[in-house]
Structures are given as structure tokens and as C-alpha cells.
Design brief:
By secondary structure, the protein is mainly beta. The chain is 11% helix and 44% strand. Strands 22, 23, 24, 25 and 26 form a five-stranded antiparallel beta sheet that branches. A four-stranded antiparallel beta sheet has the order 5-43-40-39, with no helix packed on it. This is Kelch repeat-containing protein.
Length: 440
């Protein structure tokens, strides 16, 4: 080996060994890269928590426009929740659905559960802001129990029971601060009895009985201080009779009968003081007819027919004075068509259809004038879906669903503007759960 070769090998060997200064630089570089990576990871995790985890739930819904025309012959037979009837009918119908795409934040939360599960019950807002729930049934057992909901604590308290078990009854707030409960169904028969709840003493007392036993009827507080009860089903079948309750005497007196006997109808007092009764079920099945009661003359007059026959529907008095008639059940099944009644012209017109046909639902006028529809039963079974109706655009928008699917429930607008949903049924299970809707 030459001297030159020996030198070259030694030099290469010496050059391949890192010098201490180079090692320090590499270590510093690696540490800097690690620190930068750590900072980037922390920032990324923070952004994910802020925008993906803590961000309120949103729901984007696209509603498609459909126009369908059908000619069909349909035979329907009612379920146990409706009057027993069957019919064959050939019909032609055109359905239009408005297209909208919206984004809504989650607006439902659970609140305290009732002490008793119940459906077919009645609820009422008391002058002190609490909510009174009466009667109903649980697993086909009829109840006489009553409870109070306190919005300030979100809790329910059991109070004194009614004197009689009853379901499918009504509860009406009187001008003297007491609550009138009428009729309904017991273990043995329909009721003609009525009783009063005194908020100041927390007690129930029997008052005068109606002239006719009735269930699935309506009651309304009139402008003259009397209570009007209409229709329903009694011992002799469908009723066309109407009665007036005098608060000062506790006595019922007959008033003029409606033009058509009906149960499972809707009644609503108009801004002019008259009472509008719509639809319902009679001896021939679901009805299109509507009539007006004048408390001054104590007479009934027909006021045109709705376009769609329906029972187990709802009516709502809009801020513009018109009446919104929503959903229900008809000869052809679940109804999605919605109609408007103009009391000034006494005429009917169609408005935007709901996205999901349903009956045994609720509708409520919110503080902003929009109408909220909740739950019920439709083509997909018992529903937790909800929709908002805007009277200005005459359109329905799907919003966040309730936490529980339910039918035969009740809805009450609290003094704080929130909506309280109570009880109802989910197939074979009666519910004790309640929930609140927060208007956005």
C-alpha cells in the first residue's frame, strides 16, 4: 500500500465522523421541528373542539317540489283511535309542495317528567304561569290524577285528584280563575259530569252536569263569560247538540244544535267573537263542512266547505285573523293539505302543504306569529318530526325533531314563550316524558 493510499483512507475515515459542532446543530434543528409540530397540533385540536364539537347542532333540510295527480278508489277502515266506519270512494287530487332549503339550530330539550305517564289527557296554562295536567289514560287504565308543572324549576307536583276518572275530556280556564273539566270517558261509559278546580285552595268540587254525556267534544270560553260545549260522541251516537255553562249558577242550558252531528272536530273562537267549528267525523265518516255559532243570537249557520274532508285535525287563529286548518285523517288516509279560512269573506282557500302528513298532532301559535306542528301519526308511523309555518310566505319548514316520537300529546305555550310538550303515546307505551321547544 502506498503512502498516498494510506492517507486517502485515513482522510475518508476522519471525514465520515460527525464533528461535535455538527451534532449540536442537528439536535437544535430536531428540537425546533418538534416544538413547531407540537404548536401546530395544539392549534388544530383547539379549532376542532371549537367548531366541530362545541358548535350547536345544525340541520339542513331540502324540501323538493312535487306535483302529482292521481285517480284512485280507496277503501278505508278506521282504527281504534277513531270512530268505527268504512267507506269506498273514488277521488282525483292534485298536491303541490313548496321547495325550501333551510338551516335551523337544535331547539328541543327535555324537562322534568310527569309522575304519571298519560295520553288523551288535557292541559291548561293557569294564571300563575303553571301548567295543569288532568286525567287521561295509561295502558288502557283511566286516570283521575292531576299534576302541576312549574316552569321556574322544571318539576311536576301531584295535586288532589279529580272526583271522577276521565279521558278524552276537556279543560277550560274560566274568568273567575277556576278550571272547568267536562265529560270524557270512564271505565263504564261516557260522562255528562263536570267539576271545578280551585287554584287558590287546590281542591276539586262537582258542578252541574251537562244535559248530554259526551266524549271527544270541544269546549270554549265565550266573550260573554259562558262556556260553549259542542258535539262529541254520547250514549246515542254522534251529537249535534250544544250547551252553555253559566259560571255564576253552575248550570248547563241547551242552545241551538249544530247543522251536523260530529265528533273529533275542532272549534275556535274568531276575533269577531263567533265560534268556527270544522270537520270531524259523523255517521258518514270524515266531513268537509264548517259552521259558525253566534253567541248573540245563539244560532248556527253553515260557512262553506273545506276542500278536504278531515277529522282529528287542528285549527289555529293566525295574527292576520285567518284560521289555519292543519292535517287530520280523511277517506284516503293521512292528510297533508292545509287550508285557510277568511272570516271577513267567509271563504276557504288552500295554502302550502306540510312536508309530512299526520293526525293526532298538535299545532301552536308562537310569539313571532309562526305555527309549530309537532308529532302525530303518519305514513312512517308515530313521529317526532316538527315543522314551522310562516303566514307571510305560506310555507312550511322542517326543523329539529323532538327527542321522543309521540301522538295524543298536548302542547302549551308558557308565559316565557317556550312550548311545553307533555306525555302522549309511542305505539303501546304511554309517556311521562316532557320537553321544551325554544323559539330561535
Amino acid at each position: 500500500m502506498t503512502e498516498y493510499e494510506m492517507f486517502s483512507k485515513d482522510e475518508v475515515a476522519n471525514n465520515t465522523q460527525p464533528k461535535p459542532r455538527q451534532l449540536n446543530r442537528r439536535r437544535i434543528l430536531i428540537i425546533c421541528i418538534c416544538i413547531i409540530s407540537l404548536i401546530i397540533s395544539i392549534v388544530a385540536i383547539t379549532l376542532i373542539i371549537k367548531f366541530a364539537i362545541l358548535k350547536p347542532k345544525q340541520k339542513e333540510t331540502t324540501i323538493t317540489t312535487t306535483i302529482t295527480t292521481s285517480l284512485s278508489t280507496t277503501k278505508t277502515e278506521s282504527s281504534s283511535t277513531m270512530s268505527s266506519s268504512s267507506s269506498t270512494r273514488t277521488s282525483s287530487s292534485t298536491t303541490t309542495t313548496t321547495t325550501m332549503t333551510t338551516t335551523q339550530q337544535s331547539s328541543w330539550s327535555t324537562t322534568g317528567s310527569m309522575n304519571n305517564a298519560r295520553s288523551y289527557h288535557a292541559t291548561l296554562i293557569l294564571p300563575n304561569g303553571k301548567v295543569l295536567v288532568t286525567g287521561g289514560n295509561i295502558n288502557r287504565t283511566y286516570l283521575n290524577s292531576a299534576e302541576l308543572y312549574d316552569p321556574s324549576t322544571g318539576t311536576w307536583t301531584t295535586i288532589g285528584s279529580m272526583n271522577t276518572v276521565r279521558t278524552r275530556h276537556t279543560a277550560t280556564m274560566l274568568t273567575n280563575g277556576k278550571v272547568l273539566v267536562t265529560g270524557g270517558l270512564s271505565d263504564t261509559s261516557d260522562h255528562k259530569t263536570a267539576e271545578l278546580y280551585d287554584l287558590s285552595t287546590g281542591t276539586w268540587t262537582i258542578t252541574g252536569s251537562m244535559n248530554n254525556s259526551r266524549t271527544q267534544h270541544t269546549t270554549l270560553m265565550l266573550g260573554n263569560g259562558k262556556v260553549l260545549v259542542t258535539g262529541g260522541f254520547g250514549q246515542h251516537g254522534y251529537l249535534d247538540t250544544a250547551e252553555l255553562y253559566d259560571i255564576s249558577t253552575g248550570i248547563w242550558a241547551s242552545t241551538a244544535s249544530m247543522n251536523h252531528a260530529r265528533e273529533q272536530h275542532a272549534a275556535l273562537m274568531l276575533s269577531n267573537g263567533k265560534v268556527l267549528v270544522t270537520g270531524g267525523s259523523g255517521s258518514s265518516g270524515p266531513m268537509t263542512s264548517a259552521e259558525l255559532y253566534d253567541p248573540v243570537t245563539e244560532t248556527w249557520v253553515l260557512t262553506g266547505n273545506m276542500t278536504k274532508e278531515r277529522h282529528l285535525h287542528t285549527t289555529s287563529l293566525l295574527t292576520n285573523g285567518k284560521v289555519l286548518v292543519t292535517c287530520g285523517y280523511s277517506y284516503s288516509g293521512y292528510v297533508k293539505e292545509v287550508e285557510l279560512y277568511d272570516s271577513a269573506t267567509e271563504t276557504w282557500s288552500m295554502t302550502g302543504s306540510v312536508n309530512n302528513a299526520r293526525f293526532l298532532h298538535t299545532t301552536s301559535i308562537l310569539t313571532d306569529g309562526k305555527v309549530l306542528i309537532t308529532g302525530g301519526r303518519g305514513f312512517i308511523g308515530i313521529m317526532n318530526s316538527t315543522e314551522l309555518y310562516d303566514p307571510l310566505t305560506e310555507t312550511w319548514t322542517i326543523i329539529d325533531s323532538m327527542n321522543n316520537a309521540r301522538e295524543l300529546h298536548t302542547a302549551s305555550i308558557l308565559t316565557n314563550g317556550k312550548l311545553l310538550i307533555t306525555g302522549g303515546r309511542n305505539y303501546d307505551d304511554d309517556l311521562k316524558s316532557t320537553e321544551l321547544y325554544y323559539p330561535l
